[in-house]
Every structure is written in structure tokens, then in C-alpha cells.
Amino acid sequence: MTADASGRRPLPRVIAIANQKGGVGKTTTTVNLGACLAELGYRTLVIDLDPQGNASTGLGIENRGIETSMYHVIMHEAPLENCIEPTAVKNLFVAPASLDLAGAEIELVPAFSRENRLRRAIDAVLDDYDYVLIDCPPSLGLLTVNGLNAAREVLVPIQCEYYALEGLGQLLRNVDLVKRNLNPTLEVSTIVCVMYDARTKLADAVVKEVREHFGDKVCRTVVPRTVRLSEAPSFGQSIITFDSGSKGATAYRGVAKEVSGGPAERTR
Predict the structure, then answer these.
(1) Residues 132-183 pLDDT 10s
(2) Among 6-15, 163-172, 222-231, the least confident range
(3) What is the C-alpha end-to-end distance of the chain, expressed in Å?
(4) What is the pLDDT of residues 96-137, one digit of tens each?
(5) What pLDDT was estimated at residue 140?
(6) Over 60: is that where the pLDDT of 58 sits?
(7) Which comes out higher in pLDDT, residue 35 or 99?
(8) Judging by beta carbons within 10 Å of its beta carbon (0-12, 13-18, 19+), is residue 142 exposed, middle or buried?
(9) Which of 56, 233, 248, 268 has the largest count of CB atoms under 10 Å?
(10) Is the separation of the CB atoms in 107 and 22 below 8 Å?
């Protein structure tokens, strides 16, 4: 774990990346934020909690036929360290999902201590990392509840399009529900505006509305909609390895600096 200027080791940050709307750049944000934090020198673990497994494949991990996945961690309490794979980015690791995870939502219903499975698994490896990023499914099932219960913070990507705030109120209510009943330390710490199209007035209007609602929780850096960001996952790469000089890579580097610097970095 990385020490700060005083030589002390700060507490690892466990961040759930969540949005109940699909197609809002949640996995793209998880993968590329993770890669950029790793590039800054932070040991970073991406936990793929989405049965689609896009964070895993987006980091070059073939999730078909893997012996130990997040399904085994959640359902059979396999040690998380048995599931973790290195990626092509130094300091970046991934705990992959498999299609079996889709059945975990149902299998967890009668399970003992079902909301705490992920928290216990992460606690066992937490000292090895500076950041743990949890890519939650786009729904509020038991997998997402596990992710929110294990996290200390929630990062919400919001697309710069019409209906951008649709469902956000429900997400905030659900975060509050988890906070009141399971995880009293949970907070929405960061909101990232993604899929920004500078050619439209609507995108500017959405960013302005989000900033008015959420103040310094909103990153100053806005992530543009770019072809290169869309192409990178199909090559199993983050944007910083796929096209390091692209606008998308520059934007996610900016987001990583703001996340690691906190609100003070956002108000500079």
C-alpha cells in the first residue's frame, strides 16, 4: 500500500461505482478510473460484480471457464485472493465475474448473512490495496446491496443526455436505505459527468443541472463521448493502454486525480 508524505498508510478506499440505469458508462468508468489510479502509483483492485462481466473482459480477462470467479467468492465464500488476476496495467488487478453470477441473485435469497458476503471477502485483502473499485450491476438486487454494504463511498457516473437524472433519486434513496440499515459510513462521494457531446447545448445544460444539485461532489473533469473509449473494451484494454494520448485517456486521468485528491482537488 502507498504511504503518504508523512510515511503513514492511509485507509484503503472502497468505492462502489453504481447507477441503476444501464448504458451510462458505469463499467467504462470503473475500468478506466482503475487504470488511471494504478498509473498514479496506487495499487488498485477492480471487483466485477456484474454478471455480464464487461469489466473483466475490458481488462483483458477471458471470463469463460475461469476456475474461481466472484460467483465462488459470493456463493461459496472462496477467498477473494484466489480469484484476483493481474492486468496489463502495472498496479491494476481484477477479480473477474462469470455468467454464473447471474444466478447468485436468486441463490442469495435464503443465504445466511447474505448482505455481508462481499464485505467479509474484501476485508481479508484490504491491506494489499489503496483502492478497491466495485463495478455494481445496473439494478438494486442482492449483488448491488453487497457492493454498497462493502463500500465506504459511492461514485455515480451520469450521462450528459436527456433523462440523465432519471433514476438517480431512486439510487440515492437506496444508498440511504443501505446506510441506515447496513452500512452507516456509506456516502455518495463523487459524481462524474460522462458521454459529454460538446456539439449539443443539452450536454451543457445537464452538466449545469448536476452541478447545481450536487455541488463539489461533481468532478470538474467531464468525460467526452469518443469512439476510442467505445473501441478500447473490444481489444481488452483500458483507454490508457489502447490510446494513451486520446481525449478519453486525458479525461479519465483528470477524474483519477480528482478522486484521489477529493473535494479540495475539485475546487482548485
Answers:
(1) 999 999 888 889 999 999 999 999 999 888 777 776 888 898 899 999 999 9
(2) 6-15
(3) 27
(4) 998 888 888 888 888 777 889 999 999 999 999 999 999 999
(5) 81
(6) yes
(7) 35
(8) buried
(9) 56
(10) no
Hey, what amino acid is at 33? Answer: L
Distance, CA of 202 to CA of 148 (rounded, Å):
31
φ/ψ (deg, to 5) at 17? -100, 115
What is the sign of the dihedral through the CA atoms of 192, 237, 132 and 91?
negative
Q: State the residue for C-alpha cell 500500500.
A: 1
Report d(CA 230, CA 28) in Å as an integer.
Answer: 8
CB atoms within 10 A of CB 219: 24
Give the bridge partners for 224, in sequence order. Answer: 196
Structural domains of the chain ordered from first start: 11-258 (3.40.50.300)
Smallest CA-to-CA distance from 14 within 232, 204, 187, 202 is with 187
Q: Are strands 153-159 and 13-17 parallel, antiparallel or unpaired?
A: parallel
Q: Distance between CA atoms of 136 and 24, rounded to whole angstroms? A: 12
Distance between CA atoms of 177 and 171, rounded to whole angstroms? 10
Please report where in the chains the cell 453487497 appears, as a residue: 146
Distance CA 191, CA 155 (A): 6
CB atoms inside a 10 Å sphere around CB 166:
11
CB 104 within 8 A of CB 71: yes
